[in-house]
Write a structure and sequence with these properties.
- By secondary structure, this protein is of the alpha+beta class.
- The chain is about 40% helix and about 20% strand.
- The strands form four sheets. Strands 7-6-5-8-9-15-12-11-10 form a nine-stranded mixed beta sheet, sandwiched between helices. It has a four-stranded antiparallel beta sheet with strand order 4-16-17-18.
- The longest helix has 24 residues.
- The protein is elongated.
């Protein structure tokens, strides 16, 4: 590198440090540092030319040292140092880049100053979020593995658990902050938002606080906690809320809608949800908020009028594999007036019915599995335990005494009438909406996006291992799910930036695999690289392809990701 002095027609001289390089066998020059005009630099330095010539020489020497081979000597009987962590994960630099783009560090540091904590909540939260993606487990396990991260983690286990209460206190504020940060990072559509509810279990028997027995999605008898989750049109999380495990799914939507209304004023949204959220209260709430809704409607439990219309072949258009029809009609809902009295109100809705051959085949296969379980129970002569889970819903019990005809003994047999009734509804689905300007095809297309929320719940339970929940106090439960939520947001943002071509599991696995082993003199040897690793590096503007890195070089890479 050398100092270049460029003289301009006005008589002034401009200084810059440049270097020469070859490209396609042609010598070229690039500017390394732009320094300024000589006359202005003379006000700061006695001899600017001499000073920056020395600077150019120093940069040249530094570049030479960085490109020299690293020679490390090992004693053949050298033992492993048990006092230090001998591996470092570089992959979390990707997570750091998104964490700081969301400016979570700014949020936590601002609130730390108000509290005057001795510990650093941001350092703790980062550790817990990164660990949730790289090596999900208990908080104690995350603390034990903190040495694998490059950042400083000079806090105690007690500090970490105290910090959970702090995080719980600011849970709702941080969720809103992240929502706002995403909107500033990328175009965000909330024209259609998807909502659903799932639950997470605890490996305990005692009910307490949020931990209540309810209808477990995994058919577990232990206490659970409910989570309502809302996604934007692309599948990026918008909001979540926690509810007691005994709360009915249908009661969870309105509190989340209230928060969304406060944050996204004057924005018309279409709430898309499954049939479990299709209630009078939720429909009324959407209408009063001047929002739209698209809910699925159970055909089996529908009124005879609606069921008859859905099953009637008249009006369907389409081919052998898919047929569709719709109508504008009135739906009666029950609302509570200001005086507390309930009354019936008619609302205008579009009902969309469709039949799919693929859905019909799947329904038939699922029913056959239930029939086989029902037959097995008939042979055993007992159904009480299994029937609670509807696994044997095609068994009917006829209790008679052969001599007198009085009820006494159980006689189990297949319920052929119920099987036939269910069979005629194979492949039929119904949706209702107040979005009257949308065509039936548009309504179905929007509703199909609901699969993203099911996939998101799978990510929280498999990739992030949000359950079982290892904390028991209510505030720490809230902190646990806040950690999981921010980790989920980061993974989804990465997926979106990669064009949704890679699963959350693939991304988490690659990030977790970018580990370097301490060799000698603070040099680490890395041995994992894939095309996905390179793409992740490019997303964040960092090089994750190098085989050897010093501790300082790793810190420099991490520092680059914190510039937002």
């Amino acid at each position: 590198m050398y100092l270049k002095q460029s003289k301009f027609s006005n008589g002034r001289t401009y200084l810059s440090i440049c270097e020469s390089y070859l490209k396609d066998k042609i010598s070229k020059t690039r500017t390394v540092e732009s320094l300024g005009y000589l006359d202005e630099l003379e006000k700061q330095y006695d001899d600017p030319v001499a000073h920056f010539r020395e600077r150019a020489r120093s940069l040249t020497e530094q570049a030479r040292r960085e490109n020299e081979p690293v020679v490390l000597a090992f004693h053949p009987k050298e033992k492993i140092d048990m006092r230090r962590h001998n591996t470092k994960n570089l992959g979390h630099a990707v997570l750091s880049s998104y964490y700081h783009r969301l400016k979570v560090d700014e949020f936590l540091n601002n609130r730390r100053m108000r509290q005057g904590f001795a510990y650093d909540p941001n350092a703790i939260f980062k550790l817990l979020v990164y660990s949730r993606i790289i090596s999900p487990g208990s908080k104690a396990q995350a603390f034990a593995d903190k040495g694998s991260f490059i950042d400083r983690t000079d806090f105690s286990a007690d500090d970490m658990y105290r910090c959970l209460s702090f995080l719980a206190r600011y849970e709702r504020e941080l969720v809103a902050w992240v929502d706002d940060a995403i909107a500033k990072m990328r175009p965000r559509s909330t024209e259609s938002v998807f909502y659903d509810v799932t639950n997470y279990y605890f490996e305990i028997e005692q009910e307490d606080g949020l931990k209540r027995r309810g209808v477990s999605k995994e058919h577990r008898p232990s206490p659970i906690i409910q989570m309502g989750l809302m996604l934007d049109s692309e599948g990026i999380p918008l909001d979540y809320m926690l509810f007691e495990g005994s709360d009915n799914d249908c009661t969870t939507l309105m509190p989340v809608m209230k928060d969304m209304r406060a944050r996204h004023k004057a924005k018309h949204m279409v709430i898309v949800a499954d049939k479990g959220l299709n209630t009078s209260d939720n429909i009324a709430a959407c209408i009063l908020d001047e929002n739209g809704f698209i809910f699925s409607q159970s055909v089996r439990r529908a009124t005879e009028g609606l069921k008859g219309w859905v099953l009637d072949d008249a009006g369907y258009a389409g081919g052998e594999d898919f047929r569709i029809k719709d109508r504008i009609t009135q739906k009666q809902i029950t609302v509570t007036d200001p005086s507390g009295k309930k009354k019936k109100v008619d609302v205008t809705v579009r009902q969309v019915a469709f039949w799919s051959r693929d859905f019909a085949i799947r329904a038939k296969a699922e029913r056959q599995a239930v029939i086989e379980k029902s037959l097995a129970c008939v042979k055993r002569g007992g159904i009480s335990a299994a029937k609670a889970h509807t696994a044997v819903r095609y068994v009917k019990d006829t209790a008679v005494v052969a001599a007198t005809g009085e009820a006494a003994e159980h006689v189990y047999e297949l319920d052929g009438e119920r099987i036939a009734c269910d069979a005629q509804m194979d492949g039929y689905y119904c949706l209702i909406t107040n979005e009257l300007d949308k065509s039936a095809a548009e309504v179905i297309d929007i509703y199909r996006g609901l699969w993203r929320i099911e996939d998101t719940f799978k990510v929280t339970k498999s990739v992030l291992e949000a359950r079982p929940v290892y904390v028991s106090r209510n505030d720490r439960i809230h902190a646990h799910f806040l950690i999981c939520y921010v980790a989920l947001v980061i993974l989804r943002l990465i997926q979106a930036d990669l064009g949704w071509k890679h699963s959350a599991q693939e991304i988490a696995d690659d990030i977790a695999s970018m580990n370097g082993t301490l060799m000698k003199e603070n040099h680490y040897l890395f041995g994992y690289r894939t095309h996905l690793c390179d793409m992740l590096g490019r997303l964040c503007g960092i090089d994750l392809s190098r085989r050897m890195l010093s501790a300082k070089e790793m810190r420099d890479i991490l520092a680059k990701t914190k510039k937002g």
